Structures are given as C-alpha cells and as structure tokens.
Model the fold of this input.
Amino acid sequence: MLATLERVEIIEKAEMLGKMINATDIAEKYRFYYHKLHQDKTTKEKIEAFVKMKEIYEEVQRFGRFHPDYKQIMKKVRELKRDMDLDENVANFRKAENEIQSILDEISMLIGKAVSANIKVATGNPFFEAGSACGGGCGTGGGCGCSA
Done:
C-alpha cells in the first residue's frame, strides 16, 4: 500500500514538473514555431513535397543503383530536403525543438543520477556521457509525430 502511495506522489510531482516546463519561455517558443510550421502554406508544401519524394526514394533504395531513376531521385530528394531545411519556419522549429529537448535530456539525466550512477537514461543528445545515455530521440525524422 505504501509503495502505491509513493508511486502516486512521484507521478503527481512529475506532472507538476511537466506543467512547470510547459510554462517556460522555451516551451512557449516551441509551441509558437510548431504552429507556424503547420500553418504556413509554403512551408507545408515544402514538407509535403519532401515526404512524397522520400517515399519514392525509399522505393528506389530497394533496387539501389540498378533502379533506372536512381541518380535523378537521389538528386531530387537532396534538393527538396535542402529546400525544406532552409525554410525559415522549419529552421526555427528545429532550433526550438532542440532547446526543449535539451532541457528534457538534462532533467532525465538528473533524475537518473539521483537514483543511481549506473542508471541508463535515453537521451536524444549525443553530448551526454556515453556510459549514461543509450541514444534515442527523433532527430526531426517524423517518428515522434513532428512533420519535419
């Protein structure tokens, strides 16, 4: 019974910490650029064009250099990625995303170390100590739900 009450208290404090993080300027900046990313028509078109070409690229990758359109598709996917990456809204969103991720990584490391120096903590930041992080993170590849 006591362990259950302790667990509930820890979860409540984690929720409070989440609310505190959510109230920061960095979180507000992240939300602002997230909405700009999804509301700007030109930015959305660039992202959609890249995503479509990436699907074609993945199909071409099955055959590699033997695919008749290999060079053309490889060139086009790089061009569209560069165009998307240079979009001001995408760049601002990624910067804000990295800032909030950095805070979350730091908090995870602090909590993990408070429990034990041997705890492995998944972070998306390769600059944390190699022995205490096991990798992860989205790297804005879309796996985490972001479109960029």
